[in-house]
Amino acid sequence: MLKRLIKLAGIAAVLGAAIFWYLTSPNPLPDDMLTDIDNGDAEKGKLVFYAGGCGSCHAEKGAKGENKLLLGGRHALNTPFGTFYAPNISPHKEKGIGNWTGAQFASAMMRGISPDGSHYYPAFPFTSYARMNIEDVGDLWAYLKTLKPVDVSNLDHDLPLLFKVRRGLGLWKILFLSDKPIVEIDESNPQLVRGRYLVEGPGHCGECHTPRYLIGGINKSKWLVGGPTPEGKGNIPNITPHKSGIGSWTAADIAYSLESGFTPSFDSFGSSMVSVQENMAQLPASDREAIAAYLKVVEPLETEK
Amino acid sequence: MRKIFFATLTACLLTSSAVYADAISDRKAAMKNVGMAMGAAVKMLKGQMDYDPVVASLAFATMNNAAIGLTGLFPEGSETGGKTTASPKIWSDMGGFSSAVAKFQSDTAEAVAAKPADLDAFKAVFGKVAGNCKSCHEGYRVSN
Fold first, then answer.
1. Could you tell me what percentage of chain A is helix, strand and coil, using 3-state DSSP and rounding each to the nearest 5?
2. Measured between CB atoms, does B8 come within 8 Å of chain A?
3. ipTM attached to this prediction
């Protein structure tokens, strides 16, 4: 009897491990999506770079001017899970991503998988980039290759032991990784469609402006309502059109704030939003207007105390 | 004796925290004034209001006034309270903060002295002044 039980337990354990292994397997993009990935247009990719705000984390903290294009990483992101250090994504052959293929880059961006097949931590917002068009990712790839290689080695993330095993992130991805849009909008309105794409995709606004569950996934029912900053002191503003959010701002106010950094009461953006705004200012005015139009139609939610 | 000691101590604490509360509301008021002056300046910039050199110098003078003595409104002990969005970095890097405020003061003083006669001249001067808002708020203010 006991022998049988032990045998059964053994089988269950092996089966469980197999299921875990299967569920947590990295799942790169299919080849048929990647046929044009190396034929991107760097000029267009520059705009994708600003829409995505890559430099805000991958350039040195507080970098200005040309230094914003030196993507050596090392920028620290303090989270409840530990401190993450953005890696070097400059085209440096050994220390950056200069030896990557376009396909590897696309799977990193949209599936959160490294070239060696391990999962990235979602401190890197691939959960938003998963909604990007593959063409934009190809253009971005072409642009990143035109930047200056930076000779700086990556820093190891500073995480508790429990989070050091990346395999389990495969389960997390089943829960939180999706290329489906978050907000239902009038699909026949190209401005809204563009605005949604920018906010939910490359712009990854929700990664900061939306509260997360304890295990770190975005709580979509609280989309863009803001909350205490995970970085410590301060609050991330509610950017829904509720009166406790930015309901009193017109679409023109929102677009202007992204262009200039000034709110309608002529306060100025502070903290990490400064860098975000400086990126947004590089986009065509029509893109800022599209973001504004989208932010006027998302569900108004009251700021949580 | 002990009673008097504690009463005095309490009184001291109360007044000191009142002083800090004042510092916080004073610096908020100073920033509000800068915002209002900015509002008038941007209205002219956007063409929502005709350019008026008097309004322009009034706006720059208001900002300059707010900059004078601004560092003094961030005394030790006023790090928290009153919904302040001041970053702890102000106190850990008082030197950097003071020089950022000093730059704001000299840029606005220059703008006042420049007396821009028309909108184009104003735009050039305005850009330099407005850059101060962002550059200081980026490092010395928490998100809010």
1. 45, 5, 50
2. no
3. 0.78
